[in-house]
Design goal:
The structure holds two protein chains of two kinds. By secondary structure, chain A is α+β, with helices and mostly antiparallel strands. In chain A, 53% of the residues lie in helices and 17% in strands. Chain A has two domains: 13-133, Immunoglobulin-like (Sandwich); 141-378, M75 peptidase, HXXE motif (A middle domain of Talin 1), CATH 1.20.1420. Chain A is built from 13 helices and eleven strands. In chain A, the strands form three sheets. A five-stranded mixed sheet of chain A has the order 3-9-8-5-6. In chain A, strands 2-1-4-7 form a four-stranded mixed sheet. In chain A, strands 10-11 form a two-stranded antiparallel ribbon. Residues 1-34 of chain A have low confidence and may be disordered. Chain B is α+β, with helices and mostly antiparallel strands. Chain B has one domain. Chain B is 23% helix and 18% strand. Chain B has 14 helices and eleven strands. Chain B has helices spanning 16-25, 30-35, 46-49, 88-106, 147-150, 198-211, 256-262, 272-275, 290-294, 298-305, 341-345, 347-350, 388-394, 427-430; strands spanning 75-83, 140-145, 189-195, 216-227, 279-288, 329-330, 333-334, 355-356, 359-365, 371-381, 404-414. Chain B is globular. Classes of the chains: A alpha+beta, B alpha+beta. Chain A binds chain B through residues 263, 328, 331, 357-358, 361, 364-369, 371-372, 374-375, 377-379, and chain B through 84, 119-124, 210, 213-215, 217.
Chain lengths: 380, 432
């Protein structure tokens, strides 16, 4: 490394220290570690993810995640097959967040996702001690609570990002709003099966032009999308933006209290893939912004979260199916990964028919496998 | 359309004088017999004497795959696939699953062992259900392997099959006037589904496509109706969308010696170790320029084809199966013009024979209000070079070329028939 490089490298570190210090005043880290067997510090940067301890005894741990990087990050603890044991979303640069997670004996991966995309930066956690042994009923019941925790992590970020989006719209910051639009929608798309279960609110938030019943107004994300990308004049979007936030807050309040039954989880996982096949690959969902691949990635992630919540049960009931599903999620992710563009995704209109066909083939195969989960769950 | 009594497009290397010589010396042998239409093995072969009714099942097991010399059914659903995995075991697994499903469906049963309505209410049915209550309807499912299965277009040997590709299994050359669209041409695998009920054929393809999820991707597909060839002496000659009888002189199921000579790959042929008893399949989607044809005079149409439109008799003759007489003159002109399709495609002049099994298609209209319609040409032969390619080269001066465009092209090697209960499509190819 030359002297010049060395000096440059120091600069961001200094700047971030200042940011972290400032942020800590507002965020605080106390309180949530109660009941934990230990706490583990995680320092997340744009190109590293330092986990304080990686050899643990089985038990409850509080991870204190500090984002010392320049990008918004996420932190996950994954079990085999990327089953989410716990996660925090949307950690802005400089902020710290705590995460409480119960870890039975096994191998896990602590993962930071700077920029909130990709496989993230992973390190192995080896947990020793008594492995939890659950009955079928227990593992299915746990699936429901695991998924509920996932939903809550998404809804918290959904409110946060929707708030920022609405502020940008109301402030006339068209470029800012355009950048926030696919990010906020990602949190929505990940939990769509839950959101759609509230039939009255879903069309107000996510309806497309022409979906409205007679007399209903065209509102929500897509209304603002249309204006942002078509005319760029958001001066009269204030009331629509306010209403979007109100509706999102309402649906989040309901979703946080919803526990999906295992069968609903299985069907929801498949429904998310259908969303991809019918709305995203075709470019119908984001007809003005063409940010369909952001939704694609989010639907895929949400589907995987639902399947993985069921994983401990499925692993016993039908290990071959689990292996096939793992394989096909991985192929689909690899297919999609080709179209990454920075921290986001290429616009749908830039993909060739041949490229879309590759995505479609991957989703078709994955859907065939995921569609078999419900019967395995029901066959208990 | 102007009359072309002395076409400038005289086929090179084939003068009438030479033709007389060939006929006189009796060289053409079986070919000349072919010219006489029903003359090849008109005697009905015993195993076909009990030709199945339109709703019966066609046996799936046999020395050759069904769907080649099986009396042509009325409906077609043809589909070509790209293999999207590089995992040989996945491909083999799918071929076994396909064989099992084909075995059931051709017998008139559901695609999967559980069936369309007998399974768990929480599971997607293993049969899609639209053939419930329908008869087997003569369903045949015929599989073929394209050249790109052995070596991809960019040279990759994905499945360790490159050394097993028989030389005759090569991309077809281009022909003058071709308007081939790559997106609806070629393919690593194909399935030809023929049945007397279109829903039965579509059902079969749909369920095989589903079983192939993650392993294959549909590259292109074609629906066909109204068989345009008879492949058995027991069948009347149908008409194609030009309004003419088509396939009068086709090779027929009953002519064993001609089939062995022109259709079936023999033990000593290239690839005979896995392909003997199989055949090469060539498909061409031939769009007919319907509106131009329809406004051509009857005389122009008949001179273009070389047959009369009413009876299908060769021009200058009376009955459909009367031998084509290339020497006959009417009013000082040859009755069968040497630019006519019959003249050029006839086994005597083409020097070879192929088993045709095509279907008409209408794929809606083309956006300019014209029918997007024509003939989905299917031919089986022992070697494409001495089969379709030779015939097609001979057609370069065909007057019919003014009324057609070849828009899709593909070639596949169809393995021999399924031998027993444990056999599967491609076993001999993949077992080494």
């Amino acid at each position: 490394m030359s002297l010049r490089d060395h000096r440059l490298a120091l600069l961001p570190a200094l700047a971030l220290t200042a940011l972290t210090a400032a942020a800590c005043g507002g965020s605080g880290t106390g309180g949530t570690t109660t009941g934990a067997d230990g706490s583990i510090t995680v320092t997340a940067k744009d190109d590293s993810c330092d986990v304080g301890e990686t050899e643990l005894a089985a038990g409850r741990y509080s991870f204190e995640v500090t984002n010392s990087g320049g990008k918004v990050t996420e932190f996950y603890v994954y079990a085999e097959g990327d089953r989410v044991m716990a996660e925090v979303e949307n950690i802005a640069p400089g902020l710290s967040r705590d995460l409480l997670v119960e870890l039975p004996a096994g191998e896990y991966e602590a993962t930071c996702k700077p920029g909130m995309v990709g496989d993230g930066i992973r390190s192995t956690l080896t947990v020793t001690g008594k492995a939890a042994s659950l009955s079928e009923d227990e593992s299915l019941a746990r699936a429901a609570t695991d998924y509920q925790r996932y939903v809550r992590s998404q809804t918290a970020a959904l409110i946060d990002r929707t708030t920022a989006f609405v502020q940008a719209v109301k402030g006339g910051d068209v470029e800012g709003a355009k950048a926030l639009y696919p990010v906020a929608r990602g949190y929505w798309e990940r939990i769509e099966p839950v959101a759609e279960s509230f039939g009255d609110l879903d069309p107000k938030i996510d309806g497309r032009d022409g979906d409205q019943a007679e007399g209903e107004e065209f509102t929500g994300f897509h209304r603002i999308e249309q204006v942002l990308w078509e005319t760029g004049d958001v001066s009269d979007m204030g009331p629509i933006a306010d209403r979007l936030l109100t509706d999102v807050e309402e649906i989040v309040a309901r979703a946080d209290d919803t526990t999906l039954a295992p069968l609903q989880l299985a069907n929801g996982a498949k429904a998310l893939l259908d969303e991809v096949a019918t709305g995203k690959i075709t470019g119908e969902e984001e007809r003005y912004s063409h940010t369909d691949l952001w939704d694609f990635a989010a639907n895929l992630e949400g589907s995987q979260a639902a399947v993985q919540a069921l994983r401990p049960y499925l692993q016993d009931a039908d290990p071959d199916l689990v292996a096939e599903i793992d394989d096909r999620f991985a192929s689909t992710e690899a297919e999609l990964e080709q179209y990454r563009d920075g921290d986001g995704w290429m616009l749908h209109e830039r993909l060739t028919d041949e490229q879309l066909r590759g995505l479609s083939d991957a989703i078709t195969a994955l859907t065939e496998s995921v569609s078999r989960v419900a019967a395995v769950v029901a066959g208990r | 359309m102007t009359e072309r009594p002395d076409s400038p497009h005289r086929p090179a290397g084939l003068s009438r004088r030479r033709l007389f010589g060939l006929l006189g010396a009796g060289t053409a042998g079986a070919l000349a017999a072919g010219t006489a239409g029903g003359a090849i093995g008109r005697a009905t072969a015993p195993d076909l004497a009990t030709a199945a009714g339109a709703t019966d099942a066609v046996p799936f097991v046999g020395a050759h795959q069904a769907g080649i010399v099986t009396p042509a059914q009325d409906r077609l659903h043809f589909v070509a696939f790209d293999v999207i995995t590089d995992d040989r075991a996945e491909l083999v697994g799918m071929l076994k699953a396909w064989t099992a499903a084909a075995r059931r469906m051709t017998a008139g049963r559901d695609a999967g062992p559980v069936g369309a309505v007998a399974g768990s209410p929480y599971a997607p049915p293993d049969d899609t259900g639209e053939a419930l209550g329908l008869a087997p309807s003569g369903l045949t499912l015929t599989v073929g392997f394209g050249p790109t299965l052995f070596t991809t277009a960019d040279g990759a040997d994905r499945f360790g099959l490159a050394s097993r590709r028989p030389k005759p299994l090569a991309e077809l050359p281009s022909f003058p006037g071709d308007a081939i669209e790559p997106a609806i041409s070629g393919g690593d695998l194909c399935i030809q589904a023929c049945a007397n009920d279109p829903q039965v054929a579509v059902h079969a393809v749909r369920n095989l496509v589903r079983l192939g999820a993650g392993v294959v991707s549909v590259r292109w597909s074609q629906l066909g109706f109204g068989r345009t060839s008879s492949t058995s002496t027991g069948q009347a000659t149908p008409r194609n969308l030009f309004g003419f009888k088509d396939g009068t002189n086709n090779l027929k199921a009953e002519s064993d010696s001609a089939l062995d000579r022109f259709v079936w790959v023999a033990d000593g042929d290239p690839g005979g170790d896995w392909l003997a008893g199989g055949s090469y399949l060539v498909t061409r989607r031939i769009r007919m320029l319907i509106e131009s044809w329809d406004t051509a005079s009857l005389d122009e149409q008949e001179r273009t084809i070389g047959r009369t439109k009413g009876t299908g008799a060769p021009r200058g003759q009376h009955g459909e199966f009367d031998p084509v007489d290339f020497t006959k003159q009417v009013d000082g002109e040859f009755a069968v013009p040497e630019t006519s399709h019959v003249f050029l495609a006839n086994p005597t002049n083409a020097g070879t024979a192929i088993l045709r099994r095509g279907y008409s298609f209408v794929d809606g209209s083309d956006g300019l209000g014209r029918l997007d319609a024509g003939l989905f040409f299917i031919a089986y032969q022992r070697d494409p070079a001495t089969g379709f390619v030779q015939v097609q080269r001979n057609l370069r001066a065909d007057a019919m070329n003014e009324y057609i465009r070849h828009t899709s092209s593909a070639v596949f090697a169809c393995p021999p028939g399924i031998r027993g209960a444990d056999d599967w499509w491609g076993r001999a190819l993949f077992s080494r």
